[in-house]
Design goal:
This protein is of the alpha+beta class. Helices cover 42% and strands 20% of the residues. It has four helices and four strands. The chain is globular, with a radius of gyration of 16 Å.
């Protein structure tokens, strides 16, 4: 989302998640951690104006995913990342990692597709692209 403030997009994402009845149970300050530890690993190059990871879960969807295939436990909790590059702080992105489609049959694939669709809808809502 161009011309946006990362805090506003992060707040919009939190509202989108919570409006669906989910609870953000953890917010990681990834950008701050990378900035703080850069010198420890020999780098002072700024990467992000800010980068946050919001984690949440759905008892219903998680149950469906794991009943279909217990290996799907690796997809929980769900994460969405909000970030802006250091050199373009007014261009904010919302992203997530798409799950690989492990075995488990059609029910497992359907549940993972549902997770994919949920995170996509939340990301689009946060940046105003429904």
């Amino acid at each position: 989302k161009s011309g946006a403030k990362i805090g506003d997009v992060r707040d919009d994402l939190r509202v989108a998640i919570e409006s669906k009845g989910f609870v953000v149970d953890y917010e990681s300050h990834l950008g701050q951690m990378l900035e703080r530890t850069g010198k420890d690993v020999g780098s002072t190059r700024p990467l992000y104006a800010d980068a946050r990871v919001l984690q949440f879960c759905s008892a219903q969807l998680s149950r469906k995913m794991m009943e279909a295939n217990r290996d799907n436990v690796v997809f929980c909790p769900y994460s969405l990342v909000v970030y802006a590059a250091a050199e373009k702080p007014d261009r904010v992105f919302v992203a997530y990692r798409r799950p690989m489609r492990p075995g488990g049959g059609p029910a497992s694939r359907a549940a993972l597709n549902e997770l994919d669709a949920l995170r996509d809808a939340l990301a689009r809502e946060a940046v105003g692209r429904k």
